[in-house]
């Protein structure tokens, strides 16, 4: 087994996803997407028909954070795929639920990373509306509520109250599509130096 690092896998995965989704229309790829205001991050988030998180485990990583990551991803992402080096394959396979996808990352003798799909991700049955809504800025939630006919002043309300109100107007599926629309409108909004790619 040739040792892999996180950046090698990330770069190859970006290329794979961009080739796959550029044909399908608008999509968005975000590195290190913060979930529930920083409680956890997922390595790559793909916004297309669903919000699909990709978590990378290179041969140099350990799996200590996996239980906490699974707990967060189960609440905040509609699909989840783990992209793992060969040394982590068996342990990750035993640890993740059946709705999670699994991709094996293999580094060739010349340094290139290839992927072998072991299991395709299915829809996560445990998504929590409130955890998903955390991806939106407060101003974006207020804008959505006004679009749905709410007339009261909302700026003073807490995020929790706004999310609760929003849940009365839309499903998780509708929310995920609105999140993608809002993120595409933000443009180059990342202030922490993390890259954002999208099909313009």
Protein described:
- The chain is α/β, with parallel strands linked by helices and 200 residues long.
- It is built from seven helices and seven strands; from the N terminus they run H-E-E-E-H-E-H-E-E-H-H-H-H-E.
- It has helices spanning 6-21, 66-76, 89-95, 129-133, 138-147, 159-166, 172-186, and strands at 28-35, 40-47, 51-57, 79-85, 101-107, 113-119, 196-198.
- It has a seven-stranded mixed sheet, with helices on both faces.
- Helix 5 (138-147) packs parallel to helix 6 (159-166).
- It is elongated and about 60 Å long.
Keywords:
200 residues, alpha/beta, 7 helices, disordered C terminus
Give the distance, in angstroms, between the N- and C-terminal Cα atoms.
38 Å
What is the helix content?
25-40%
**Count of DSSP-assigned helices:** 7
- Beta-strand content: 15-25%
The value of Rg in angstroms is: 18 Å
Helix/strand-derived category reads alpha/beta
Topology overview:
Blueprint: H1 6-21, E1 28-35, E2 40-47, E3 51-57, H2 66-76, E4 79-85, H3 89-95, E5 101-107, E6 113-119, H4 129-133, H5 138-147, H6 159-166, H7 172-186, E7 196-198
Helix pairs in contact: 5-6
Short description:
By secondary structure, this protein is an alpha/beta fold.
